[in-house]
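Format notes (please read before filing issues)

Several people have asked whether sequences and structure tokens are stored in separate files. They are not. Every record keeps both together, in the order shown below: the sequence lines, then the token lines. Line labels are part of the format and must not be stripped during preprocessing.
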Amino acid sequence: MTATSPTAAPPRTVVIYRLGSLGDTLVALPCFHAIERATPGARRVVLTNFPVSAKAAPLEGILGGSGLIDQALAYPVGTRSLKALWALRKQLRTLGADTLYYLTPARGMAAVWRDILYFKLCGFKHIVGAPSTPALQTWQTLNAQGELEPECARLARSLCAGGGIPAINLHDRGLWDLRLSPAELANADRITAHLDGVPRLVINMGGKVAEKDWGEGNWMALLNGLAHAHPDLGLLVVGAQEDSERARRVTAQWPGPVVDACGRLSPRESAAAMRQASLFIGHDSGPMHLAASVGVPCVGLFGGYNRPVVWHPFGQGHRVIHRMSGVQDIGVNEVLTQALEALQALPRQAETPPATASRG
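Then the structure lines:
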């Protein structure tokens, strides 16, 4: 008789509940790394909304391939259908997971306790990170000026509150690693080949929220000022496909090489393309958080859509102009001054612009 080897037990499964789009996913990135460290060898299934909108990438498009998640399940946001919720309950129970990590933005005490009750009915014995107290629902005040903690800090605080996850050091650059693949890096380098060997500036002018739009005229005036001071810089424009037409108009007079990558790169490839940039300029957006995740200093333009600091890019070297009266109240000279100060340490190359600018 031939002995048979015992069948290996399937890996443990855990579920991560995270709603949102590109920026929401990126500010939670340290939490995803912390969960991975706390669950070695586990299969991690993320419960999320997708697609979020035509302009916002689903979470799976940002973390898929990183090893931080293994599968994504659709959460029916806003549904009141008992049939849909029952079907999701069946899916979740089939996973055999007993632990759920709760990373969703604070939406009020009633919402979180409703979620806890539902997930308990789905079979989860342990729910880690649910902001079930007023302190976890709100951002801590950091100083006498009333400055609030970033959303990534509130998420990390909530996740670690029960002691199941060790304290998260948000300044650990490894916790912001997207783990870009060789293929993603190669495709980004291919799309931006016109910028090879040239210091580059990245801008993002698009987005799904009109209140965050600084305006085409302001962008043209800003780039005119930057071109006068730094005609040697290359220019990379990132965004969705529908941002491309504006990108062509705004960059038409740029003296150096230009690559319009709008709609040509996935979010992860956009991060790969930005990793060699000297500076990112853009509004309150997912691409800004992508740039920050790969260590690029940002000049961020914020209006009244979000409270100060909460959604600012995290890390050192960023410069933020935040007008609660509206992003349109930010002057071109203010942004130009911040950008020039950030760029002044760059090595200068030949000041004579090429006769014909290359365009990607």
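For reference, the curators noted about this record: The radius of gyration is 22 Å. The chain has 13 helices and eleven strands.
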